[in-house]
Amino acid sequence: MKLVTQVNFTDGDSFYEALMALHRSLDDSQSLEVNARLILLMANHIGDNQVLKEALEIAGQSVTASHQSQ
Amino acid sequence: MQTTFENPRYPFKHHSDLNQGTAVHHPVVIVGAGPTGLAMGLDLAMQGIPSVILDDNNTVSVGSRAICFAKRTLEILNRYRCVSPMLEKGVTWKKGKVFFQQDLVYEFDLLPEKKHKLPAFINLQQYYLEQYLVEFIDTQQQVDLRWLNRVTEVTPGVKGNRLKVETPEGSYVLTCDYMLVADGANSPIRKQLGLESRGQVFKDRFLIADVLMQAEFPTERWFWFDPPFHPNQSALLHRQADDVWRIDLQLGWDADPQREVLEANIRPRLEAMLGEDVDFQLEWASVYTFQCRKLDSFIHDRVIFLGDAAHQVSPFGARGANGAIQSVDNLGWKLASVLKQQGPTTLLKTYDIERQMAADENILNSTRATDFITPKNKISRVFRDATLQLAKDYEFARTLVNSGRLSTPARYLDSPLNTLDDEEAFDGGVAPGSAALDAPIIIGDKTSWLIDILGTRFTLLIAIDKTDISRVGESLPELLQSVGVDLVPIFLFSESTDLEVPKGAMCICDPWGYVAQRYQLEPGTCYLFRPDQVVAGRWREFTSDSLISAVNRALGFDMEVMP
């Protein structure tokens, strides 16, 4: 696997706090929009299609699993 | 309800201040005999400063309250020579587990490094800690602990304070150079002086229950997010002394605190968690909301705030009492230096500077944990649950899971008391502003610990080569004289030696190399420690001039030019 799943944050707690702060005053549809923009920005920064594919794969797993169980 | 501990009732004792027609003067009056006030009295006694502690009550903590005491707190109590009963009674632990729904998602070990005198944490009910401190204080002549003495009026002044105190035998007035306020989160003195502790209240309620039971759970901190026995909320299980277990259950903001604290309502919640066949007895329970807040300044002329009265945090991370004891440790030697006229009064400012930094860090960490545990809106809940799901399989997400970042020693890296390293002199070791790291050593023919011999006075640790001893030894007496404060030189050898150590110096041996490794020592390297065991400066080569200027700096003399 090319995707890094080991810790790579310089300061994970600080990032998480900033992410929550970004969303704090938003309604649901605004949050969806902000998340979409964020994903696209990060995806471009990563660039490598192999890495992105692996991330998409893992991200989709939880939803796929719950679909199958229904 | 409580069967394992009966609160002692300390008697009111008549004292001579009551007989005086005029106000009696004391250099230091401490208000509040909780962990903070009691430790403060002991710290000052170590420095030879007498103090009076006033408390409006006549007993120790009712209920277990603070239970997790961190290594740094234990090191400070070790410096006061009173840690043994705490260690004996307390439950030692260093590991924790975090669960999400049915699954274990994260494990941690708080002291992976071996060979420290004191453990990462002990769990001990606050009433035991206070009781042991009170018993120890009874052996200390310089601490005058007065139960049932309630401060009813404070007249603060730039040169000292005047206090009116009420007792069962009537009231009296006393004056003091400094009043140290440790009267808790709701500090009546803070209110009387019109000062506000500012921050935020978290919109959530938690049930805290102490349960007496024989259980098979390991001595670890277990935290659950959304467990099957308490859906959509969090739970915490932690062992204390006497087979008492602390259980925290998140209830949500809408819970009714008066209803939830009733045993009839607590019992089913605990049965769901522990299993119906587990026999338990409820010792104590309380429903809490949490706050993170602090005073903008801990010092107001001759009034100095400590502990929860100065800075208050949510309990996730055990940063309340542990932060408070570190504040005591920080203030004690500074106040003593000022009262002994060894340091300028501006030295006290650095208590505010350093402990504000630490309070900010404690508030930041406990706020982050509380926000993770209690998501503020739908999207933060989505992110939290996604983090917990990913944490089952992916390491990076485990580091984001936040059930409390447990108390570690504060690092005053930007303190004005630090002497900065010479460029590229060190790449590791213990940086100026950091608390000492412990390591095993040998003194004479006995195994001991570095932490046992540091602190209360300034200490200079010199890693020395046998061939250098005479050169350094010759200049030592003159140097010690020119430093102007009480400074203990410690010579550290890598192997045992029969060389004669210069008079007034202590000789230790580091046969396993732990000190050398943890402090990145080379022959000639020296470290200057403040009386609170914090590194003030360090050098690859020992010179009198650099030492003298570092001691002066650590005593706050360089700050006099500051506005």
Describe the structure.
Chain B: Keywords: FAD, Flavoprotein. Chain B: Residues 27-362 form the FAD-binding domain. Chain B: It holds the Pfam family FAD_binding_3. Chain B: It comes from Shewanella corallii. The complex is a heterodimer of chains A (70) and B (563). Chain A is mainly alpha-helical and 70 residues long. Chain A contains 3 helices and no strands. Chain A has one domain. The longest helix of chain A has 21 residues, at 49-69. Chain A is globular, with a radius of gyration of 14 Å. The termini of chain A are far apart. In chain A, 3% of the residues are buried. With 563 residues, chain B is an alpha+beta fold. In chain B, the strands form 6 sheets. In chain B, strands 1, 2, 8, 9, 10, 11, 19 and 20 form an 8-stranded mixed β-sheet that branches. A 7-stranded mixed β-sheet of chain B has the order 6-5-14-15-16-13-17, with helices on both faces. Chains A and B meet through helix 1 and helix 2 of A and helix 10 and helix 11 of B.
Average residue pLDDT of chain A: 92
- Large-scale geometry of chain B: globular
Q: What profile does the largest beta sheet of chain B have?
A: 8 strands, mixed
Strand proportion of chain A, as a percent range, falls in under 5%
> Which percent band covers the strand fraction of chain B?
25-35%
